[in-house]
Amino acid sequence: MTVKTRKVLRIWPSSAPRINECAGAAYPLTDSVIVVQPSGEPARVGNAIHALAGQIVRENLSNCPDATGYALDHDVLDKVKDITIKGIYAAQMWQEIRGEFDLETVEVEKYSKWMDEEGDGPILRLSGYTDVRGLLLDGVSIGIIDWKSGQPDFEIAEMEDGDGEDIQVLVEKSGSIHQLKCYAKHALEEFPERTLVRLHIGWLSERYYITATYTREEIDAWWDKLQYKIRNWDGKTFAPGTPCKWCRNAIGCPAREKYMGVAVKAFDSYPPPTAGRNGLAQDDPKRYAIEQRLSNAYAQCSVLEAHIKIFKANLKQEVAANGPIPDGEGKALGLINVKGKTVIDPLAGWDKMKEHFGGNESELLKVVTISSSTLTKAIKDRTDRGEKQHAVDHLIEDLENENAVIYTPGYQKFANIKDKRYQPALDI
Prior knowledge:
The structure is a single chain. By secondary structure, this protein is of the alpha+beta class. The chain has three domains: 8-231, Lambda Exonuclease, Chain A; 253-320; 346-401, no CATH class. The chain is 41% helix and 16% strand. A hairpin with a 5-residue loop joins strand 9 and strand 10. Helix 12 (372-381) packs across helix 13 (388-401).
């Protein structure tokens, strides 16, 4: 008797948004080392904030503990103030919602694993960590907290249901909702007697959170669609593009390699036909083709930049672990020490600096400046959501009236802006 061995595919919650776009992202395509996402400063700051928030929940604290140790552990000591500010809001948020939880069941950094062996095709292993999870006191719900240290990618929209009743709907600006639904699926599989999941999504930098509730039926329906995409993948259809930036299966992916090759070829053969584009009519097919080519080339460029960044970060880790890499011509690729930026704390060193300026405080004041970004961040951190920009504008206006603002020439950069040609017509 021949027993057919089924392949096991591991699905991480963080990979679910990519898999939803490209089912091929779920399949290992090579035995080579998988691309490791580099741990840059923003990621390290986020890890420190998550660890701090975890202590707050684990010890059921009402105030933020000292964040210095977490900043040291993650090599972001210069960001300790920012981490503390976000920790303060994490403590405030926990105070507001902890009354919903059965505190005896609350777990921090909860690792879960669930195997979906239903149907044909590969077995799907859904595994990962949930920031905070616990049973709610209502007896039917599971509570989940997901800390966000970056910018909001969800919002609550006011809508009407089929009966005309006002309801609030969670609207996603990216595919991140698939990650959160993975956490919900984990929880519902572990607690089959529970029927609802309440997701509390907290943006610590913006000092606000939203709550979304899903039924078991909604999560099951979502999973059915995702697993269908994975198990019915034809083995050759990919969706290359922006999701390739962080795909774990980027190595060996034929679509990604073709995408990169097309991008390099486009850059190599390109002078921008700017004059010809401006001289063509808006509806001219040649103009459309040129603009489409430029848009595609720019999108490919961003993917190339991401992979170059990842490659350099991985190479740096390799050299740090195993030493310089000889080039065979008498030189080697190694690491050198670069001196860090020196920053003076004027509050702590004012008297000494004044002494070195011969006691002339007016001369000292001429060399002391504060960057607008530093001042803006400080004002926003101490202002409630909805009032942040108003507070900054008001401060700048006051400083302008005192001739205390120095403007330097600006510059232009790329951004996604609205195309006026494709705006909906007004119904007059």
